[in-house]
Amino acid sequence: MERSSSNKGHQSPGAGENTSAIGDAAEKAKWMVQEVLEKSSGGEETMEEYKRLSTLTHCTRRHHILVSHIVEMHGNSGSHS
């Protein structure tokens, strides 16, 4: 006796919504990163490097991690008098 495979190829309700939500989140994150880079010191160079290479060098990544850490620990002001 053969089993019917009438459900083959059908997705459960809401399965496509998850993919759409991930796409929306990725687009939102991309926009947010671009906005931050446009406002940060060295951000223009980082965006140019990414456009040119389609990736970031290890040195550029480390620089941004270090700057983020310093700003988080000490604030964004240039000097403390």
Beta content: under 5%
Write down the oligomeric state: single chain
Average pLDDT figure: 75
Low-confidence stretches: 1-10
Largest sheet geometry: none
Alpha-carbon distance between the two ends: 86 Å
Structural class: mainly alpha
Summed up, the helix count is: 3
The radius of gyration is: 22 Å
> Roughly what percent helix?
55-70%
- What's the total number of strands? 0
User: What is the approximate shape?
Assistant: globular
Written as H for each helix and E for each strand, in order along the chain, the element string is: HHH
Briefly characterize the structure.
It contains three helices and no strands.
What topology emerges from the helices and strands here?
Blueprint: H1 15-39, H2 43-53, H3 58-74
Helix pairs in contact: 1-2
Structural features, described:
This protein is mostly helical and 81 residues long. The chain has a domain of 32 residues. It is 65% helix and 0% strand. The protein has 3 helices and no strands. α1 packs across α2.
